[in-house]
Automatic annotation (TrEMBL):
Keywords: Methyltransferase, Transferase. The lineage of its organism: Bacteria, Bacillati, Actinomycetota, Actinomycetes, Kitasatosporales. It comes from Streptomyces spinoverrucosus. One of its GO terms (molecular function) is methyltransferase activity. This is Methyltransferase. Pfam families: Methyltransf_25 (PF13649). SUPFAM superfamilies: S-adenosyl-L-methionine-dependent methyltransferases. Residues 54-147 form the Methyltransferase domain. One of its GO terms (biological process) is methylation.
Length: 241
């Protein structure tokens, strides 16, 4: 496997401990504030909206279920089986399907592509949580999944978000309640340079088709009660040749 067992266990531990209620996890914001905004940016660039949609790093499936209301076939994929247990429990009607996937493992992404064919991929805030050595393999895996006709919509924390997160972590009262488990399980967000994200895509053979900035909404509030939003950047990419 391309990820270390420590890294996988960190995510399994986080999701085993996480409450099942929507909004109890730091990034588990309402779809209207997250995937809903993203679909409006993503959809105009899809070469084929009928392709399967893969929600990569789907966690407990909040955004996956939203995507399943907009696309004909949606698969939620995550490294942690414990995350998918939450997702499946919250989706008794089976709006989407779910599977464990290490997207940085070439064998696994090739197998999924062989099963699905070309796919559109939605990934929110996963790259910056990867260990540095896994970032290019992860984007290479995305390129495998999109194939010739798919598109990827990628949302990542901007460099400026690091300052916000450090400030929250170093608060005299400690980090906010929903952020504390992230640090406790050793999966504190790393920093990815803004310029590095399009470089990862280019190195994977993908062309950036559109990009922009949009605050990433969280489920936590600051001391004054204002919802915490983190600066983020989004990109749409695919093969154009």
């Amino acid at each position: 496997m391309s990820v270390t067992s420590r890294y996988r266990e960190a995510w399994e531990g986080f999701w085993r401990e996480a409450p099942g209620e929507q909004g109890s996890v730091f990034w588990d914001a309402e779809p209207a504030l997250t995937a809903g905004r993203h679909v409006a940016l993503f959809e105009p660039h899809l070469a084929d909206p009928g392709l399967p949609m893969v929600d990569l790093g789907c966690g407990n499936g909040t955004q996956t279920r939203f995507l399943a209301g907009h696309f004909p076939r949606v698969l939620g994929a995550d490294l942690a089986a414990a995350a998918l247990a939450h997702a499946e429990q919250a989706d008794p009607a089976g709006q989407a399907t779910y599977r464990v996937l290490d997207a940085a493992d070439k064998t696994e992404t090739e197998a999924l592509h062989a099963q699905l064919g070309d796919a559109n991929v939605y990934m929110r805030g996963v790259l910056h949580q990867c260990e540095p050595a896994d970032r290019q393999p992860l984007v290479d895996g995305i390129a495998t999944l999109v194939g010739e006709r798919g598109r990827v919509f990628l949302v990542e924390l901007a460099e400026a978000a690091g300052l916000v997160l450090r400030g929250l972590a170093q608060s005299p009262d400690g980090p906010p309640a929903k952020l504390a488990p992230v640090f406790r399980h050793g999966i504190a967000p790393g920093e990815v340079a803004d310029a590095a994200v399009p470089e990862f895509l280019t190195a994977a053979g993908l062309t950036v088709l559109a990009s922009g900035e949009l605050p990433l909404t969280t489920t936590e509030s600051g001391p004054d009660g204002t919802p915490i939003e983190l600066p983020s950047k989004w990109l749409v990419a695919g093969r154009t040749g």
